[in-house]
Amino acid sequence: MRYELYYWPTIQGRGEFVRLALEDAGAAYVDVARRNKAGVAAMMKLMQAKAGTPSFAPPFLKAGSLTIGQTANILQFLGARHDLAPKSEAGRLWVHQLQLTIADFVQEVHDTHHPIGTSLYYEDQKGPAKRRSAEFRKERLPKYCGYFERLIAGSGGPFVTGRKLTYADLSLFQVIEGLRYAFPRSMKKFERDIPKLIELHDRVAALPNIAAYLESPRRIPFNEDGLFRHYKALDK
């Protein structure tokens, strides 16, 4: 099956978690909105549809007659189809739970630079962003990363659920990549406290399909329009 992925064409954002799963699986897919302006128009048209199962926002994935929205929901679907999730129901639910926790974490990262409202520019909320980022670096970053560090240490294997790679591992790789971009100064000091999580990141980066993807033009560089943004004032 050839998938159609719909997401904003110039940022990694939440769509990147889906791209990583598709790339690792070696799945055939089209990043629709990146092809041309008509792709963006097609994405907006599908979102505004009155019938069917239109998504509130991208990313969403078309797979045959299915249109699937929400990052964690898409990954749950792809995980079952491409051996990126456990076979048992309990295992699948556990990985889905982990992905939802990652989604919470990513939202908190986003809120460091947009603590008041997404419709405002960063420049309109610099003061609150600085306070929010300080609290995030001191409290929330260690809490989330410590949780996943503990899970990896107790998993009995190199990945968060044990010996087998899941889409949650791919997503944790992306989180570390994003945190390094957004908070390079803080992460340089903090990474010594999360060695298992860093080892997982490096293990995912070395996967053949992921390594090839990271070196390809399909990997959009981080920038100040995405979820993970670097502002020097927020990394002190």
Automatic annotation (TrEMBL):
Residues 1-86 form the GST N-terminal domain. This is Glutathione S-transferase. Residues 88-234 form the GST C-terminal domain. One of its GO terms (molecular function) is glutathione transferase activity. Transmembrane segments: none annotated. PANTHER family: GLUTATHIONE S-TRANSFERASE. GO terms for biological process: glutathione metabolic process.
